[in-house]
């Protein structure tokens, strides 16, 4: 059941929304701008539920009729705008589901709230249709536009909405969430947190994903044994890495995190602060074997491999160059 106090991070946005409720200064249109998994759906739904809650407080009570309906997605005055075509939200979608509908008073709630997910997919005509509603909304109308890219909106839309930009959540909060609420062990929480870069949804997805675990195990196996590998074994490894081609950026990031750990350990001799602290035996061995310059060359080579793959350089060639650089250093 959503509640503002259960949302990880985004304190500024939450306090902005709760202040607006407290002062009874709700805007008619908000933009929640954040990447996928950042939490904009959760924030918008919790805000909508709070606005409609029968207790009228700054957080949803969770138990009134309206709150229960909101949780089930059946609150008649919280409307999720759907679109027929997957790639775009057309003018007809907006006219039928928003512009026309908003003229009808709410059933039984103080507001009539429209949630438009992936709102950047609105065509220019759809945005212009919506603009008329934003300019002259009925007193009870609230529009919540969710987007991963508010730069896709017309300036006229942007100037009439309150834009709430979601920022990355602190690593310490994400780590605590994974460990305390999802019961993820600490070494796994470290990797998922480092990887998620402030995105709680991504951290949760990684922690729950068997596939990510498999990717990580493969990458770690490779770095542990790289120094002892013969050329034919490297060729074999490349063939295996090719199976993870769709996730190659994650794969290369895992390798880079590992070598950063080696570099950090070489410089500080501290286990605290390492992302792969459970790999300390291998990390300390590698720190002895490889010079500072060598580690920097490896980390650069990992970046270069990503650039090459983005530029569509042959996959096997890019990986071969990378693994040879790792082995030489
Ligand atoms: Zn309630």
Task: Tell me what the structure shows.
There is one protein chain. The protein has 15 helices and five strands. By secondary structure, it is an alpha/beta fold. The protein has two domains: 162 residues, 3-Layer(aba) Sandwich (Rossmann fold), CATH 3.40.50; 120 residues, Up-down Bundle (Zinc Finger, Delta Prime, domain 3), CATH 1.20.272.10. A five-stranded parallel sheet has the order 2-3-4-1-5. It is elongated. The model has no long low-confidence stretch (mean pLDDT 93).
Would you spell out the secondary-structure blueprint of this structure?
Layout: H1 11-22, E1 29-33, H2 40-52, H3 65-72, E2 78-80, H4 91-99, E3 112-116, H5 124-135, E4 141-147, H6 155-160, E5 162-165, H7 171-180, H8 186-196, H9 200-208, H10 210-225, H11 231-241, H12 248-268, H13 280-289, H14 292-310, H15 315-328
Parallel strand pairs: 1-4, 1-5, 2-3, 3-4
Bound molecules: zinc ion.
The assigned structural class equals: alpha/beta
Helix proportion: 55-70%
Number of helices: 15
The biggest beta sheet is recorded as: 5 strands, parallel
Low-confidence stretches: none
Report strand %: 5-15%
Summarize the structure.
With 329 residues, the protein is α/β, with parallel strands linked by helices. The protein has helices spanning 11-22, 40-52, 65-72, 91-99, 124-135, 155-160, 171-180, 186-196, 200-208, 210-225, 231-241, 248-268, 280-289, 292-310, 315-328; strands at residues 29-33, 78-80, 112-116, 141-147, 162-165.
